[in-house]
Amino acid sequence: QVQLVESGGGLVQAGGSLSVSCVVSGSIASIKRLGWYWQAPGKQRELVAAITSSGSTNYADSVKGRFTISRDNAKNTVYLRMNSLKPEDTGVYYCHARVYSDYDLSEYNYWGQGTQVTVSS
Predict the structure, then answer these.
(1) Distance between terminal CA atoms of the chain?
(2) I need a labelling partner for 45 at 20 to 30 A (CA). Which of 59, 62, 73, 98 fits?
(3) What digits encode the pLDDT tens for the residues 79-116?
């Protein structure tokens, strides 16, 4: 069983900052990739940022220069620092992990429960 537990998020005024974090636990050999996805009501879930085990990152164009993703491999934790927040950043942020099973090294995808980020204008 693999669990992703998110924390952080909340309400902030436009221009402010927030951080979210996600801890991955359970029966895994290692984590291939960690990411954060955003979903607003009535919209599809979209990639915000992702980071590989080697530290390579990619970001959605809309957050480049404002958001920073990082990870602590020893703690199986991924962070997302969000600066210069805009009202259009409002939504539920989901943590995603692509992991290698400790049973057969197959790859699996897991999701966190989501954390709400609300940016007021």
Answers:
(1) 40
(2) 73
(3) 999 999 999 999 999 999 999 988 888 999 999 999 99
